[in-house]
Design brief:
- The chain is α+β, with helices and mostly antiparallel strands.
- The protein folds into two domains: about 30 residues; about 100 residues, Immunoglobulin-like (Sandwich).
- The chain is about 30% helix and about 30% strand.
- It is built from two helices and eight strands.
- The longest helix has 26 residues.
Length: about 160
């Protein structure tokens, strides 16, 4: 006895299963394309050659901080957003310092503040909102041409020690 299948093809399981496999890949591809178009590729430098040439200038600022024997203790008050920096150096201290909070991945989350020297010798600034997560800290004196860097995870209640490397 011969058995005949009376169901049309579109009511069968296997054709839909075989169509769903490549169909899901196409949908995932469009989703990936959408995500890629919505995000900036800020990790990629447009002028990598110029950035490579500038590395020597950056290293010179690090060496100058080591030569001046600069040691810094930085505190960020998470409640009120106050940033207090204490600098110890062999040389006279500058009037102003610049502190950069750089996100490892998102340029939109980068933050730069100017620290003003107080009568006690510390440097003080106010943050509108405390950074969260990992940040590259870069403390620099444009006036004296030195900088100190470190990688810190926020929020932190402990003082951050920056030392020339």
């Amino acid at each position: 006895m011969q058995r005949t299948d009376t169901k049309p093809w579109y009511k069968q399981f296997w054709p839909w299963f075989l169509i769903a496999l490549p169909g899901s890949v196409v949908i995932a591809g469009f989703a990936t394309l959408y995500i890629a178009m919505q995000q900036d590729n800020t990790l990629v430098s447009d002028d990598y050659y110029k950035d490579g040439l500038a590395i020597n200038q950056v290293l010179a600022r690090d060496k100058k901080a080591k030569m001046l024997n600069i040691n810094v203790q930085l505190r960020v008050d998470n409640l009120i957003g106050e940033v207090r920096v204490n600098v110890k150096s062999n040389e006279p201290l500058p009037k102003d310092l610049t502190l950069h909070f750089r996100s490892p991945t998102l340029v939109k989350q980068d933050l730069t503040i100017e620290l003003k020297q107080t009568p006690t010798g510390d440097y003080l600034a106010q943050l509108n909102n405390t950074p969260m997560g990992r940040r590259y800290l870069e403390l620099e004196s444009v006036e004296q041409g030195w900088r100190l860097t470190d990688l810190v995870t926020f929020p932190t209640d402990k003082p951050i020690a920056l030392k020339a490397q």
